[in-house]
Amino acid sequence: QVQLVESGGGLVQAGGSLRLSCAASGLTFSSYAMGWFRQAPGKEREFVARISPSGGSTLYADSVKGRFTISRDNAKNTVYLQMSSLKPEDTAVYYCAAQYAEARVTRPAFYDYWGQGTQVTVSS
Q: Rounded mean pLDDT of the chain?
């Protein structure tokens, strides 16, 4: 049974930082690209960042480029999202997701497994 468990969310002031973690089990972690998505109330789930299975390639949404960094530790089956210079518009539930076959990498529907999400709230 595949499980993705996010942690590290919370309340932070604008300009602050948070690091999210996503621990994976039940899959060959190093064979999957990992993505972070977020969903704010009343909005669709949107792509945030993606990292290739080896960690050698990353992709970011324009809205977070230069502020967020995705990384992974295949020995620990964990992917991270370091978020800095946070803005109130970053407030959302953040989800990690695993993708086996590389296709439409920014589209949620093309990811195979999802975590339950962790809330990030940025106050102004």
A: 96
